Q: What sequence folds into this?
């Protein structure tokens, strides 16, 4: 019994260790920092080029679209900080003035460059989904 | 009304505490009167919750906007159906709905098991009453749905969000809640068994079917959520590992694990601690999922808002659940000893064990990755997130292992498979896998992900088919009937096993659909009216015009597209954006979708310029998506078979009285007569037939004004489309054309079959039409098979069973398994 216990324990340790290592390595590749605009902007240069999820609110009246394209430019604000964001693509239904958004992309000196399909608009407080599904 | 509602909730809380304490004392002192009193009190709580729900629904339907919750989620313009579903549209109401469902389930479970599980019942009441108390406490203290405005109240409500005004969204949350609350019943019985020490397999039998049912609801609920996302949100997919989705997936994993491992305990008396732990963990995860989506602990685009106090209450309850439950497990450890040891790794129980580990790993991986942002914030002070690619990277291999085990499980014997046995069982599946892999290489399908998925699907399908064929042929030889009757006999003797196989077939189809994901194509295009786009071969999409229409609830901007496939007319599609009154700032995307067995053509109107009418479209080609939904349908069917009570299929094995074949024949004839009678009717008066034909055809042709209704049903005032259709129809009827000719003319003029409200009888459409007939034929075949079997039985009963002698080992094994699995 005790010999069996040791074998089982050993197996658990080896398999568990392997999984943990795999998990750690794969996670390093795909992890993204999740930050609010006012956490990032005061030390903006430190964040240049890093994969980032930026949380903030769309400044009212700042959404511009280049005619005949899907190129968007808008300001995102949280607290006292603001940053300009550029995005090309389809925006979700709930993207509008004052919407709470999470942008996936990278920060550059020229502003925040949003990835493809990187705009996730948080539903306004009125929208309280009841279950699963969608973005 | 609102005051009454609040009072009922308070009363329900008090009574469930009473049910709790009375049952506890009754159970400990074995006082029957107290036990019965506790049960009665619990039923009263159920009744009160039903009354409270009725009050809430009444408030919604009558528009009682003094109640904050009603004002927030409904308005007077909302259709009645959505007023009704607004009940669970928000946080407070959904908690109340949850509580009501739990109360009802609890009452049903208590009534059903009252006689058989006499000793468990008081403990079941104790457990359910605690859960009820917790949720009622939440409502009374924190989230009273009957809360009213203190001062003057608004005259109208704010309305349910347009995104939620969708058929799927109306039935998807209740399905999930049914699944979630259903899992509380196995938990209550598990705790009952632990507390009372009645840890034989009795409690398992009581909860097996409950778990199956709750699992079914969870499966359907998850699928409906996916369908909603696919059809309503317009991003072309159905699953993106959002925390709220994951919350519902977690208990699904553990419940699936339990449904498998329970068989090991029934059959071999092993894994007792494991099973009771799985039941506890499943229940815990349902509570945890509710907590995750309602406390703001994880950032999700559609989680409920942040709520510290609620989070604390939930945490307290969850800790209590875990400590008490696992405390009981440890206390009862001596009673939970295994009767057997694992004999060999080449055995069914080993396969089940590995399947359980994989499922559990899937659950904990999902939990870990979902909670990772919260965890990292707690540990490092920085919120670090992981996205869908990370989930996919891990869950694809995990899914493959599960799929592989699905194929391996049936091929292994209980206790120990011999080498000869393995060779015989694995021969065909392995041949098929090799062929499938070869085919993937030959057709240049990328091997990782899709190639492996297709091969594994082939593997599982072969292994299941082999099980059916072997089982049926052995049974046929043993009973001397035809192969068909033998197959029915298999189901009737071992519903759970063969129903389970059907569920596995469904799983295979679902995976087929997942595999199609790697072939999807997406393009974004910008077109002016009259321009075409041919970037996604073999389709060409022509943008005809942009129209604006209006109805009382919304303004609709609709693009008119003509799609051809390899030069042939394919479809007319109308993606749109709807601007609901009061929600003008957030238009809803109305996806235009053309489904097909091979791929879906999916168009979204992303934006448009009012000036020159140019528009942007996002086009998705989604291969094999429909197999996901279809596969879930098969899973539901399989679950129903497994779920059927003992007697449902007794007819297949019952002794048949004399002359039943004749009776069946007469019955069949009687059923046939109405069809004959109907076949004679269409020769009535000419004039009546004409107007009837017109009316009928109006119901078959779609109105062209963009209302998406048939011409007969279009309610638009001064609808031009309808008038034009009617005029054209009159003319065609006057020309003396037959119904199919008229429909063909409409299709020809319009350019596609979309003008018809029902698919015509051609090509793939024939498959849809053929389905009821196929079902009918199957039914006739079933009856015929029965008749053959009944007439033969006499002969075979007299003589010895001949066929079985050929393979006594196989026959023994089969009979052994059939006997023990059910």
A:
């Amino acid at each position: 019994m005790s010999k069996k216990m040791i074998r089982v324990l050993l197996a658990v340790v080896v398999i568990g260790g392997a999984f943990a290592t795999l998990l750690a390595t794969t996670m390093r590749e795909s992890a993204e920092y999740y930050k609010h605009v006012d956490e990032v902007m005061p030390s903006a240069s430190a964040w240049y080029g890093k994969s980032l999820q930026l949380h903030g609110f769309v400044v009212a009246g700042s959404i511009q679209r280049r005619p005949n394209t899907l190129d968007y430019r808008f300001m995102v604000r949280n607290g006292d900080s603001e940053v300009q964001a550029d995005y090309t693509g389809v925006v979700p239904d709930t993207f509008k003035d004052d919407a709470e958004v999470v942008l996936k992309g990278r920060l550059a000196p020229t502003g925040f460059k949003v990835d493809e399909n990187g705009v996730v608009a948080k539903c306004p407080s009125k929208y309280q989904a009841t279950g699963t599904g969608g973005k | 009304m609102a005051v009454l509602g609040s009072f009922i909730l308070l009363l329900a809380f008090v009574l469930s505490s009473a049910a709790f304490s009375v049952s506890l004392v009754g159970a400990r002192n074995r006082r029957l009167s107290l036990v019965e009193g506790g049960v009665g009190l619990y039923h009263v709580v159920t009744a009160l919750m039903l009354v409270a729900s009725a009050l809430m629904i009444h408030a919604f339907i009558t528009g009682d906007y003094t109640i904050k919750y009603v004002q927030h989620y409904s308005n007077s313009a909302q259709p009645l159906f959505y007023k009704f579903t607004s009940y669970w549209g928000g946080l407070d109401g959904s908690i109340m709905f949850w509580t009501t469902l739990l109360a009802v389930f609890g009452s049903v479970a208590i009534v059903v098991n009252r006689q058989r599980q006499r000793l468990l019942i008081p403990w079941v009441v104790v457990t359910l009453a605690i859960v009820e108390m917790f949720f009622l406490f939440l409502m009374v203290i924190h989230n009273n749905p009957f809360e009213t405005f203190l001062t003057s109240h608004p005259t109208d409500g704010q309305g349910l969000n347009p995104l939620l005004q969708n058929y799927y969204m109306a039935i998807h949350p209740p399905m999930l809640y049914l699944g979630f609350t259903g899992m509380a019943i196995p938990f209550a019985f598990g705790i009952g068994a632990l507390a009372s020490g009645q840890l034989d397999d009795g409690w398992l039998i009581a909860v097996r079917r409950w778990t199956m049912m709750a699992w079914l609801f969870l499966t359907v609920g998850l699928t409906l959520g996916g369908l909603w996302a696919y059809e309503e949100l317009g991003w072309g997919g159905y699953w993106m590992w959002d925390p709220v989705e994951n919350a519902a997936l977690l208990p699904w994993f553990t419940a699936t694990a339990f449904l498998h491992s329970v068989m090991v305990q029934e059959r071999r008396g092993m894994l007792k601690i494991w099973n009771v732990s799985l039941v506890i963990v499943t229940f815990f995860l349902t509570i945890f999922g509710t907590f995750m989506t309602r406390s703001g602990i994880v950032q999700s685009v559609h989680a409920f808002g942040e709520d510290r106090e609620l989070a604390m209450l939930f945490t307290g309850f969850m800790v209590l659940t875990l400590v008490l439950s696992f405390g009981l497990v440890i206390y009862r450890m001596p009673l939970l000893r295994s009767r057997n040891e694992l004999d060999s790794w080449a055995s069914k129980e080993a396969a089940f064990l590995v399947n359980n580990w994989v499922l559990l790993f899937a659950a904990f991986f999902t939990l870990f990755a979902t909670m990772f942002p919260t965890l990292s914030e707690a540990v490092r002070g920085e919120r670090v997130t992981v996205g869908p690619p990370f989930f996919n990277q891990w869950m694809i291999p995990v899914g493959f292992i599960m799929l592989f085990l699905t194929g391996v499980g049936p091929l292994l014997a209980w206790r120990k498979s011999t080498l000869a046995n393995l060779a015989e069982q694995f021969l065909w599946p392995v041949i098929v896998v090799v062929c499938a892999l070869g085919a993937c290489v030959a057709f240049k399908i990328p091997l990782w992900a899709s190639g492996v998925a297709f091969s594994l699907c082939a593997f599982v399908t072969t292994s299941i088919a082999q099980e059916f064929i072997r089982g049926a042929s052995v049974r046929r030889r043993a009973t001397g009937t035809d192969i068909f009757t033998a197959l029915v006999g298999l189901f009737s003797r071992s519903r759970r096993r063969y129903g389970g196989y059907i569920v596995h077939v469904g799983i295979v189809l679902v995976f087929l659909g997942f595999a199609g994901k790697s072939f999807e194509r997406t393009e974004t295009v910008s077109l002016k009216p009259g321009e075409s786009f041919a970037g996604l071969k073999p389709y060409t999409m022509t943008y005809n015009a942009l129209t604006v229409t209006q109805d009382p609830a919304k303004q609709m901007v609709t693009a008119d597209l003509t799609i051809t496939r390899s030069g042939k007319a394919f479809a007319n599609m109308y993606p749109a954006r709807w601007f609901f009154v009061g929600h003008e700032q957030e238009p809803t995307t109305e996806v235009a979708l053309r489904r097909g067995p091979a791929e879906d053509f999916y168009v979204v109107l992303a934006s448009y310029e009012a000036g020159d009418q140019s528009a942007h479209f996002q086009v998705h080609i989604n291969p094999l998506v429909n197999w996901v939904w279809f596969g879930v349908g098969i899973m539901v069917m399989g679950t129903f078979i497994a779920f059927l009570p003992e007697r449902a299929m007794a007819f297949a094995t019952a002794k048949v009285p004399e002359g039943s074949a004749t009776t069946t024949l007469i019955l069949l004839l009687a059923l046939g007569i109405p069809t004959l009678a109907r076949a004679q009717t269409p020769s009535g008066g000419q004039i009546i037939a004409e107007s009837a034909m017109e009316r009928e055809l109006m119901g078959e042709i779609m109105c062209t004004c963009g209302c998406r209704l048939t011409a007969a049903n279009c309610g638009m005032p001064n609808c031009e489309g309808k008038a034009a259709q009617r005029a054209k129809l009159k003319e065609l009827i006057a020309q003396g054309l037959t119904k199919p000719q008229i429909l063909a003319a409409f299709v020809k003029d319009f350019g596609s079959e979309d003008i018809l409200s029902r698919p015509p009888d051609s090509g793939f459409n024939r498959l849809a039409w053929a389905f009821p007939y196929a079902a009918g034929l199957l039914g006739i075949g079933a009856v015929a098979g029965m008749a053959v079997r009944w007439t033969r039985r006499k002969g075979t009963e007299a003589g010895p069973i001949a066929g079985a002698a050929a393979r006594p080992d196989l026959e023994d094994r089969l009979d052994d398994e059939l006997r023990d699995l059910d």
